[in-house]
Amino acid sequence: MNAPHAAVVLAAGGSRRLGHPKQLLTRAGEPLVRRAARLALATAPARVLVIVGADAGAVASALRELPVETALNPDWAQGLSTSLRAAAEALAATAGDCLVLGCDQPALEAHHLQALLALARGSASGCAATFHCGLAGIPAVVPASLLREATGLRGDQGLRGVLRALPAADVGELEAAELRLDVDTPEQLQAAIAAGWVDPAG
Per the CB 3.0–4.6 Å rule, which of 54, 106, 160, 182 could disulfide with 197? Predict the structure, then answer.
């Protein structure tokens, strides 16, 4: 029997291009970081780890009363790779798969995450990823051992480089066009609001 998976929510970024914390944007009144953590919990993981950094206090407060752990990434300004390293260190004793997701894909639903877990179980590498224009990205599922390889990444390098090193046929592919929209810029925020995936500003 496979070891239960862990889930990692990457929520440490500074939202520089957007100008305010995207983690705290809301959908149906729920902060996106809380929504991502709740969707991760719906996959019945052994644990959910939320990596916080910029606006750590407010982001952690948005998670109040959810059965999740938070880990502070003090180096968040140095890029996404530092959050992956923080996750790898916090999950050093984990043997199962790791479901890795962000909090800035407001169209994300639980069925996307369940599909990735199923694809990973059936793939030769134990990995599955969401593919955007032919490139692997998050949400993704990787074995804990592969997550630990992320400790060698630098700057804004994410799991894409680690996944790209694997034979393409060995990685489960989730095609979900709606997940191509992440909220990094004011223009993307307006598109998400227009689609009903993010609440308009108060």
Answer: 106
